[in-house]
Write a structure and sequence with these properties.
By secondary structure, the protein is α/β, with parallel strands linked by helices. It contains eleven helices and nine strands. The longest helix is centred in the N-terminal third of the chain and has 24 residues.
């Protein structure tokens, strides 16, 4: 059954993927009408998340951010599909690094890196730019999909320009193996997902008690790789820029929870500046802090 669903869906995905961007965004506008106005996909979750995160904002302001988010969300869905066939040159044009100096400085010291970021903007478009315009081979962590056909498609999409993928379950083992590689590598950790509450580091994020995965901090401290935050902005529709910022050069010297606190607060800063391009439909606060 899963194979049948995949092979029915695949031609539709490729047909959308080869559309020029002008038509793609017209389709996105129509998708917005379906998802936001007709279906109201996760609208209650989005609005609740926004109200709790911005208690100082009026209901009119909350609804405005919600509409802007859904416009972006529909763009993001179709941009993800577009990345199946997008060219390297087009992808690099649409997501640029504002500077590579800090990466070049660490490359001279022959240091592997850890990148941290959140679900801001179209983080997938940044792969070719990070792969071809920095001294580092890029690795992304992924959670294997239940449908192996879609899982293979996603891996193929993410690796077509040279980016490596690491299964979530073997991140530390694989990073240990790569430690002695002659080619410098940088591994991306998406740090705003939701862990089990009993195993998490808890902090205040967007005015709410929030669990944070300890794995990023734990691995960074064990390997003592410099931690770089990738600040992501949308400059206009379909175009993004990333700015690498050093968060911590020697994680092993930090106190427990310090690194988790730093990268969470830095992500919060980006969200406050451009809230509409963060993934509000995610059930980020479904867990309560244990007593």
């Amino acid at each position: 059954m899963k194979a049948i669903v995949f092979y029915i869906t695949l031609p539709i995905l490729y047909l959308i993927s080869i559309l020029p961007f002008g038509l793609l965004y017209l389709l996105s506008d129509f998708l917005y009408f379906i998802i936001y106005s007709l279906i109201g996909y996760r609208k209650k979750i989005v609005v609740t998340n926004l109200r709790n995160s911005f208690p100082q904002k009026t209901e009119k302001e909350i609804q405005k951010i919600a509409r802007e988010f859904y416009h972006f969300f529909c763009d993001w869905i179709l941009e993800m599909i577009k990345s199946i066939t997008i060219s390297k040159e087009e992808s690099m044009k649409r997501c640029r690094l504002t500077s590579t100096q800090i990466l070049e400085d660490f490359a001279k010291q022959h240091k592997h890196l850890i990148y941290v970021m959140g679900h801001m903007g179209n983080f997938e478009y940044g792969g070719p730019e990070m792969e071809f315009n920095t001294p580092y081979k890029l690795y992304v962590i992924y959670k294997p999909q239940a449908n192996k056909h879609f899982d293979n498609l996603i891996k193929k999409k993410r690796t077509r320009f040279g980016t490596g993928v690491i299964p979530m379950a073997s991140v530390y083992r694989d990073m240990i193996k790569m430690r002695e590689d002659s080619k410098l590598n940088a591994t991306v950790f998406i740090t705003d997902q939701t862990p089990l509450p009993s195993n998490a580091y808890w902090t205040t994020f967007l005015n709410q008690e929030t669990p944070i995965f300890r794995g990023t901090e734990t691995i960074a401290k064990k390997l003592n790789y410099p931690v770089i935050f990738l600040s992501t902005k949308r400059t206009k529709r379909g175009f993004y820029e990333m700015t690498p910022e050093l968060l911590c050069e020697n994680p092993k010297d930090t106190s427990p929870g310090e690194l988790s606190e730093i990268h969470t607060k830095r992500l919060e800063q980006d969200i406050l500046e451009q809230p509409e391009i963060w993934l509000w439909s995610h059930r980020r606060w479904k867990h309560k802090k244990p007593d």
